[in-house]
Amino acid sequence: MRGEIRILRRGEVVKLSGISPTLTLLDYLRLTERATGTKEGCAEGDCGACTVVLRRLRGERLVYEPVNACILFAGQVDGCEIITVEDLARDGTLHPVQQAMVDLHGSQCGFCTPGFVMALFALYHRADTRPVDRQRVNDWIAGNLCRCTGYRPIVDAALAACAETANDWFSTEEPDVRRTLGDLKDSEDIFIGTRERFFAAPASITALAKLYFSHPDATLVAGSTDVGLWVTKQLRDLPKMIWLGRVKGLEEIEDRRDAVSFGASVTLAEAMPYLAALDRDLGELTRRFAGTQVRMAATVGGNIANGSPIGDLPPALIALGATLGLQRGDRPRTLPLESYFLDYGKQDRAPGEFVRVVRIPKFGEGEHFRCYKISKRFDSDISAVMGAFKLRLDGTRIAGARIAFARIAFGGMAAIPKRARTTEKALIETYLDRPDTLEEAIEALAQDFSPIDDLRASAKYRLDAARALLRRALAEIGGASTRRTRVVGFREAADVAPA
Amino acid sequence: MTRIGTPASRVDGRAKVTGAAKYAAEFEAENLAYGAVVSSRVAKGRVVGIDLRDALGVEGVIDVLTHENRPRMARSKKAYEDDIAPGGAPFRPLYDDKILYNAQPVALVLAEDWETARYAASLVRVDYEQEAHVTELESQRDEAFDAKNSPKPRGNAEKAFAAADVQHEAEYWLPIEHHNPMEMHAATVIYEGKGKLTIYDKTQGVQNSQAYVASVFRLKQDDVRVISQFVGGAFGSGLRPQYHLPLAVLGALALKRSVRLVLTRQQMFTFGYRPGTIQRVALGAKSGGTLDAIMHDALAMTSQYEDFTEHVTNWSGALYKCANARYGHKLARLDLATPIDMRAPGGATGVYALECAMDELAVALKLDPLELRLRCYSDRDQNEGIPFSSKKLRECYRQGADAFGWDKRNGAPRSMRDGSELVGWGMATGIWEAMQQKASARIVLTANGHAEVACAFTDIGPGTYTMMAQVAADRLGLPLENVTVKLGDSTLPQAPVEGGSWTAASAGNAIALACEGVRTQLVRFARKVANSPLADAKPDDAALVDGRIVSKQDSSCSVSIPDAMRAANKERIEQEATAESNDDGKHARYTHSAIFAEVKIDEELRIVRVTRIVNAVAAGRIINPKTARSQILGGVVFGLGMALHEETQVDHRLGRIVNHNLAEYHVPANADVHDIEVIFVDEPDEIINPLGVKGVGEIGVVGTAAAIANAIWHATGIRVRDLPVTVDKILG
């Protein structure tokens, strides 16, 4: 048992023992360390002004992960090195990313600048292909808002700075850092505080199950991109916090012939290449899932467990036929993902029970998949409508094939991510080259869903868009060129960069 | 890279990319206490009870201030009027029990640390006596009253409109928008003792904040020092002292301790905003494409306590040739905070409506929209009946259209496509005032050839530090790195708030004037040098070049600055000068622009992408093309947000803003921005001011939303007349 968290900061190992469970990393930096270079622009992970880079070991890899410090709790950086904007320049020489930002006028009022600099610093170290192209930059900084520059000068600075292979003082010190971070690794459970008020980070599934079973009122945290806002926006006190990030086994990704499984602490960034390999649309979906910083912290399991009606992954995973592995005490159980969502804000999860794994079956013969996300603002926005479609076709020829089986799920159309069961039934036994019967099935969506008007879209738009998305999926699966059907880009050309 | 007109990199760049630049909430003090604001939950009525017990019971809470227990504040409403205050009685935070709008501050929690203050703020329980509120503009059409200072009419617009060959008349709606600078409003008040305060404030005007605090708290002006050296954007939100400032001061006075108060992003929606408007534009034209009548009426919102008015309608008569024009501007009182200027106030609003109406008129006339603008081109400001100091708008049209490829446009809607997407091309004109305010600047030149230039203006991001350094370097003939800039401090020479695109002209001309004084002295000193080549030189005979005083007649005759100062036995020269506008009413002073926009729209899903914008700007002399280009880029993206995203939504049942965060109030994200080309048209102007500078802070916004809305019509054939143009509005 360890009663402190340990971080690497400016070459020194720092031990924090008396921290409050809800102390954010940003407040630690700005108020405790008085390192004010890192800014707060929204305190909810929307703007990226608070971006810091965690240099950490993921297995054997030393990686640079940009994260939003405003909604990350201090305890969650155990075992990481924290790099902030003050740390980049050395001996009066600016880092190449900083120099490019100055030269190309990527900073105006300067308030978003530290966040952009840190996001680009991480890109500088992560870019696997050189030179980095515009699309990669655009995707990478989707989670950083700027109100002054109009973004173009920042993108230009990124392209200039990331034109050459990473070669800075951070690269030079990597062997030392790897060793130090390696030394910080242990298999101790962390428990800071008292039985009434604590931050805990169990190191094994057994320890987690035991702790949560005896404290079912504790808040489970994986990436805290949702729970963080309970503190910063709802001003809630969360006296008992259990973080999943150290639980051995929950970080595992199991890629088998018939299925891929993600442990509950696998981040979206880590899952992204596997999802993209499963299907290009899933890759495209994760690319537009919040911004880079959120994907670095947020988890596949968390996106499901929090039960949001507009989480982006659940509709896709429901259509794919995913199952959820839960555990309470020493009792595991498995259920189809769609059964987990009961009603608005209500899930099939008992007190003390936690999500352990999500299992996504791979495609069988004749199975096809499409999914689309529509949001009010293209990037870094919550879905207005999210549609996912899986069909199994009879026979080998696609043209004119008969639909043998359909699983369709939507987000943003009901109080929970929900299957379109009437529509599914109407599609079965129809033929892809019979538009009239397909249209009948498409009309059935109105029986499955009664969406509402809200800030993101009107009910009418939602239903129309849902119909259009199903129509597109059927056309594409039927062999039509995606030049006419894609929400963005072409499926044939979809190119998802790994995180 | 020192001269005026060269693209120098910003001099504060290093401070900003390293995190060294310090903003209002980042200054330290011994024994600092932290504040958190409790916001009202009702829109109208009064506070009848406040239960502080739970909040005060939290360990670390020092005190909770309310209208019942706060230190003394001025009673008179007049004491709260700042430089920018509109008519009426300003809001007095924590003054009394009255609730004037939802989410106004009702209590201030003061604690030993921020986490505690924030949490305790959630425990303050307030009871209200509620009254019925009104927050919907449209419901107040009949209640609205005439705003003061509507522009004067000319001719008989009603009659000319009725008789016109072609008429267009429509209503255009704009929602409330919030500035949402990236930095939240904040103040750190350092309690110096002996009645003295040093305040790090997020503001666009340090001397405005200083005067306000002195007046509200009956302090001596000299005992209040306000500093704001870096401002994380403002766009108008910092023009007036916002409530964070008096509350932080209240806290410091109550505790006799230094206090920091930072608003939350949610609370950034609890003061000024761009007012929502409903505008009616009626245009009457001859079939040949010239205007006979312009009628432009605006209905705008204001609060219950102040009459906020902006220039919304006058642009219509200033921009185009038309013998008959009439304007109307009405205000409706709502139970909301008073609006405040937001980037291109009034202009962004009025020109949006005018330029969409002109597009619709072009369609009715079967004319190309650009051709219509050319036929209505005016060489005189007809509102005032005077010529322009300069107006290269024709050149903006030409260069912009060329760069965009406008001549390849097929005028029919839904006529252009790219794969599955509909393509639309639209254009609009932009116009903004070129203003100059009285300002002073001080130059201190030391014998080592280093100059310090000082002025109390703030730099909210456009590059004021760089502009000031560049003008001084140019006029003193020094390298840019030999000039340091001091700004954002109330102890510095007088400056108004930074806004209205007037900073470059106001500070720039004051600096140039001070530099002239320095030169005069230097020439006098140079004459004293033994065997001086400038022995007979008069001040105007010499210029300052490369650290030397050089004869204009013969550049081989020169004296170095150190030599001249040594000869006069001077270590330093200090020179202060004040510049004022030379406006004698004989010329109209405006910047102009032509904006061309391309949109691509998914035909079924109606997702709009703005794929290309060309903005050609005529703004007099450009001091620094790099910073100026960025102003236009940022302005265009602001306009893009206005066109497609930005909308503050009020739940009228509660009278409360509901999308008060950056997840639901959308500002454009990087992916929304595609190609933007900025062109500066050469526009010499010897009338406007000695530097020939007009300013570029606002012009990039003006007209952009109209160009995009017009392009959306061209793509889809659907005319959306209320912004933002969201997917559901173009569903048809």
Record keyword descriptors for this entry:
heterodimer, A: 499 residues, alpha+beta, Ubiquitin-like (UB roll), Uridine Diphospho-n-acetylenolpyruvylglucosamine Reductase, domain 2, Enolase-like, domain 1, 3 domains, five-stranded mixed sheet, five-stranded antiparallel sheet, 19 helices, B: 732 residues, Aldehyde Oxidoreductase, domain 3, Aldehyde Oxidoreductase, domain 4, 15 helices, globular
Summarize the structure.
Chain A has 499 residues and is α+β, with helices and mostly antiparallel strands.
Explain what the structure shows.
- The complex is a heterodimer of chains A (499) and B (732).
- Chain A has a 5-stranded mixed sheet. In chain A, strands 10-11-16-12-13 form a 5-stranded antiparallel sheet.
- The model of chain A is unreliable at 494-499 (pLDDT under 50).
- Chain A has 19 helices and 20 strands.
- Chain A is globular.
- In chain A, 32% of the residues lie in helices and 22% in strands.
- Chain A has helices at 25-32, 96-103, 113-126, 134-140, 152-161, 169-172, 174-184, 205-214, 227-232, 268-278, 280-287, 292-297, 300-305, 313-320, 337-340, 421-427, 435-443, 445-448, 459-477, and strands at 5-9, 12-16, 51-58, 61-68, 81-83, 190-193, 198-201, 219-221, 240-243, 253-255, 259-263, 323-328, 331-336, 341-343, 346-347, 353-361, 367-375, 383-393, 403-411, 418-419.
- In chain A, helix 17 (435-443) packs antiparallel against helix 19.
- Chain A is α+β, with helices and mostly antiparallel strands and 499 residues long.
- Chain A folds into 3 domains: 5-184, Ubiquitin-like (UB roll); 190-243, Uridine Diphospho-n-acetylenolpyruvylglucosamine Reductase, domain 2; 253-496, Enolase-like, domain 1.
- Chain B is an alpha+beta fold.
- Chain B has 3 domains: 18-132 and 182-234 and 238-269, Aldehyde Oxidoreductase, domain 3 (Alpha-Beta Complex), CATH 3.90.1170; 277-435 and 587-730, 2-Layer Sandwich (Aldehyde Oxidoreductase, domain 4); 436-579, Aldehyde oxidase/xanthine dehydrogenase, molybdopterin binding domain (Aldehyde Oxidoreductase, domain 4).
- In chain B, 23% of the residues lie in helices and 27% in strands.
- Chain B has 15 helices and 33 strands.
- In chain B, the strands form 9 sheets. In chain B, strands 3-6-1-13-10-11-12 form a 7-stranded mixed sheet.
- In chain B, a hairpin with a 2-residue loop joins strand 10 and strand 11 (196-201).
- Chain B is globular and about 80 Å long.
- The two termini of chain B are 53 Å apart.
- The mean pLDDT of chain B is 96.
- The interface between A and B is large, with 85 and 82 residues.
